[in-house]
Write the structure tokens for this entry.
Amino acid sequence: MTILVITGTGTEIGKTVTTAAVAATALAAGRTVAVLKAAQTGLRPDERGDADECARLAGAVTTAELARYPEPLAPATAARRAGLPPVRPHEIAEAAAKLATEHDLVLVEGAGGLLVHFDDEGGTLADAAELMAAPVLVVASAGLGTLNVTELTARELRSRGLNLFGVVIGSWPDSPDLASRCNVTDLPKVARAPLLGALPAGFGALTPADFRTTAPTWLAAELGGTWDGGAFRDGI
């Protein structure tokens, strides 16, 4: 696997921290890593974006950002309102392919969910993943409501013939409620894909050194880590 697409079932669920954790784990294994942010919204040009945050937490990754729009909206809407060119799926695929010639692993982080529009023609991250023939990692929330959106995302990926690599819980609460505990078992069932990790809530607030040391312990072997899903379920 050279390119891995990372999407979410929504916004603010730990997608960037998950991307950073996968990057840190790969770096620790001696791999070269690039992080490509397809479109950054809601930030000024002088502010640090998601790709920058991945580099701060993970370490020596190459970062790339294809477009930035000031308003916190879907990329297509943000581009239109700002009067700026949109990012199109083929541009995402071409940028990832170029990075893949120089890196062992390229992580392509989307914006929001799988079907968020990047342009007014309805181009999405799913379209870019199809062009790249790349597996997709889905970052999901832990609590009530996550099963529906996770299954919908998984069904869309399967309908397109895309490889759903697995699911990661992007923010596992310190005191999980009943729904969260049950979802550890139910998420892989509705996704029909393995649960490949559960990152602790607030994980991104660790110092970079602590983040890099502990990141592999929260990701499964398929992502280069040491996290044991069975032991995790038994422990909650």
Q: What stands out?
A: The CA atoms of residues 12 and 233 lie 24 Å apart. The chain has a mean pLDDT of 96. Residues 15-28 form the longest helix (14 residues).
